[in-house]
Amino acid sequence: MSDNDGKKTLGLRGPQSGNVKQSFSHGRTKNVVVETKRKRVVVPKPGAAPKATAGGAQPVKSDPAKRPGGISDAEMERRMKALALAKAREAEETEQRAAEERERAEERERRRQEAEAKEREEREREEKARKKTEEEEERQRKAEEAAARKAVEAAAPAPQPDEARPAPRGSAAPARKAPERDTREKQVKPKGARDDEGRRSGKLTLNQALSGDGGGRQRSLASMRRKQERARQKAMGGQVEREKVVRDVQLPEAITVGELANRMAERVADVVKSLMQNGIMATQNQTIDADTAELIITEFGHKVQRVSDSDVEDVIDTVEDDPTLLKGRPPIITVMGHVDHGKTSLLDAIRNAKVVAGEAGGITQHIGAYQVITESGAALTFLDTPGHAAFTSMRARGAQVTDIVVLVVAADDAVMPQTIEAINHAKAAKVPMIVAINKCDKPAANPDKVRTDLLQHEVIVEKLSGDVQDVEVSAISGKGLDELLEAIALQAEILELKANPDRSAMGAVIEAQLDVGRGPVATVLVQHGTLRQGDIFVVGEQWGKVRALINDKGDRVQEAGPSVPVEVLGLNGTPEAGDVLNVVSTEAQAREIAEYRHNAAKEKRAAAGAATTLEQLMAKAKEDANVAELPIVVKADVQGSAEAIVQAMEKIGNDEVRVRVLHYGVGAITETDVGLAEASGAPVIGFNVRANASARNTANQKGIELRYYSVIYDLVDDVKKAASGLLSAEVRERFIGYAQIKEVFKVSGVGKVAGCLVTEGVARRSAGVRLLRDNVVIHEGTLKTLKRFKDEVAEVQSGQECGMAFENYEDVRPNDVIEIFEREEVERSL
Ligand code: GDP
């Protein structure tokens, strides 16, 4: 269809329908209603069409030869008419606009004339007033001059008068007038619209619009408007600037440009500009130091209020309680004493006697502390981690939790080194003591010997007329337990322990661990206030929102008051034992404090370095140089295991050799641990934890032995043998590779398959595997499959990808690490 071709060229489609589609360059299109235009063709404005065609942009001529792409005559005519009509309408509109403009111009002119008339009147009035004063002045001057002349003439005759007279008129008078006129003009300006130039150009523009002439006048109108707008804005802007609010800007040690602008309530762009002017190129998210920020703040005219980072901690409620608000609280008891004197047995006996008797089912949960009720109805809170290590480490961290120390001394033994240590710790902490003489069921028991022995250490028991209560007990037979509890209750009464339960909670962490199922969990002993579900808190370098509270009986509770131990869920990380928990009002505050503490601790560590600690440790070690020592560094997955290992280690050894735990802690083995071990030639023992990559590298380079265990017995056994020089050949694990899980797939029939990248060494089908999450062992077992591109393979080398599935284990997650090990026989060298 030739018609169609033509339409295509012109960009018109579907002439039959009411709508035509017009296409332009770059693929733009436009819908045009043709019918409307066709109707208008009936009444074209005479004379409008030729004018329009003359300047028309379209190549529409009646000569078909010159038409692009063969448009039919009828079509051509229709288009011409449409065009003519459009032009006519345009002209009509222009005329209408011009008329409106004219009216507006007249109106403006009228107003201007009115204003001018007013102005003139005013000017005349002023003129008259001025003339009057001038005349008066003139008269006065003439009088003065006359007087002067008379005086001068009297002294010496001079020809000045004629010259002197016009001079004051010509210079002084106009000089006086000029400023007057200036002020007059200034006064008039705001009232009397624009100055002449502005007025004229405004009028001219309208005339241009009337005559419908060129663009130059259009520009004048636009520029006039801009000018007016500028003037208006200037007037308004001036006022705004004058009203500018001076703010007190809180300035921390470092601040981002965006935050600085925000605190000053200025535009970021302005701040960036100001920085640039000071030679600093910074974007919105860049951090600038306080000095630079201060410069900018003063430049913007605000006041600087420097705040220190540590001020973030100010939101923590540290107000001293009003004594009237205090209520009695249960005492918190720590059991101390020498190894094997029966601390654990005693704690268990108390717990079982009380909890089992009191609770249906009697299921107890170990959360690091428990509460019992005595016969007389007093509540007592026992810390379930015996020994002075926990006690001192808590104290060292500023958390004095214990109110009463129960010193356990075995009646069949005597006062031993750790008994003395315990006494010293209790004294140093100014905590009252109660002596529990244990194992009184034994035939060899001699409680009185214990009493007299204690005298040497300035512990005078009541039986020897002292003030330290002493109770004979037996953890095995249960003898004297109630008596002991009543003694504690009595001591607590004397202490008058009080706390305010109606304030933001504060408490101390007594145990914390990363629970595979529940995330980080901390057992907190509330010291004042009441901790509730939903509370937002900061604890050491961590923070969180209480998701759940679980008491020592394993029940979920809504709140925990003073001296109540609860397990807290909902932490963002694992805190350390001894960390203090504080409830704050917002998550932002909690996060800010935790971040600040984390950074501060990092800086402190970096500044002090491991060396100081190490030096101190070495100095201590040298004091006991007569005994051969086997130093070790222990890292474990939970605080409980770490402490258990340390206790087990303390038990190892004889007069000639002993194990010294240089350092122990919870979490992955880090470079610091390796550094510590290196300096004293110690091995690092990981109990269910692994060394992180950098620690592993350092250990490899420096020849530090990293030993991993998952059974305490194996560990104790190895260390024991090492200490007594009984090392023999053993089957030992050798790590052959590591793989990182990238993705986890579910494959029917196989279960979960981990898509891994072998990052180190080699993955072997026959080897043993462990699943590590955050360097903590989650699972140990064997592989069900080892696949490379759908094929079962025996080995996958480092750098290659593979699929692995565990035998009888499904909980694999992306980013977990798979450790691949083989067992081999080696000479022990611990
Ligand atoms: P810890 O190291 O102080 O915690 O002491 P343990 O509680 O582990 O006790 C060490 C050993 O002493 C265990 O074998 C207990 O069975 C035993 N034992 C503890 N208390 C008593 C007691 O009152 N009588 C007797 N006969 N043995 C006890």
| Percent helix | 40-55%
Q: Poorly predicted ranges (pLDDT <50, ≥5 residues)?
A: 1-16, 47-66, 157-202, 212-216, 356-363, 607-618, 726-730
Structural class: alpha+beta
Instruction: Walk across the major sheet and give the strand order.
Output: 9-10-8-11-12-13
Kindly provide the name of the CATH class of one domain.
Alpha Beta
Main β sheet profile: 6 strands, mixed
C-alpha end-to-end distance: 97 Å
The CATH topology label of one domain is: Rossmann fold
Number of helices: 21
**Ions, cofactors and other bound molecules:** guanosine-5'-diphosphate
Global geometry: extended
Beta content comes to 25-35%
Number of strands: 35
CATH superfamily of one domain: P-loop containing nucleotide triphosphate hydrolases
- Radius of gyration, CA atoms, in whole angstroms: 48 Å
Judging by the overall fold, what is the CATH architecture of one domain?
Answer: 3-Layer(aba) Sandwich
Mean pLDDT comes to 76
Layout of strands and helices, then pairs:
Blueprint: H1 2-10, E1 19-23, E2 29-33, H2 34-40, H3 48-55, H4 73-155, H5 161-164, H6 166-191, H7 196-211, H8 215-242, E3 248-251, E4 254-256, H9 257-264, H10 268-277, E5 287-289, H11 290-299, E6 303-306, E7 327-328, E8 332-337, H12 343-358, E9 369-373, E10 379-383, H13 388-396, E11 404-410, H14 417-428, E12 433-438, H15 447-455, E13 469-472, H16 481-495, E14 498-499, E15 506-515, E16 519-528, E17 531-532, E18 536-539, E19 542-550, E20 556-557, E21 559-560, E22 565-571, E23 580-584, H17 587-623, E24 628-636, H18 639-651, E25 657-666, H19 671-679, E26 684-687, H20 693-702, E27 706-709, H21 712-723, E28 729-747, E29 751-764, E30 768-773, E31 776-788, E32 791-792, E33 795-797, E34 801-806, E35 817-827
Parallel strand pairs: 3-6, 8-10, 8-11, 11-12, 12-13, 24-25, 24-26, 26-27
Antiparallel strand pairs: 1-2, 4-5, 7-14, 9-10, 15-16, 15-23, 16-22, 17-21, 18-19, 18-23, 19-20, 19-22, 28-29, 28-35, 29-33, 29-34, 30-31, 30-35, 31-32, 31-34
Helix pairs in contact: 3-4, 4-7, 7-8, 9-10, 18-21, 19-20
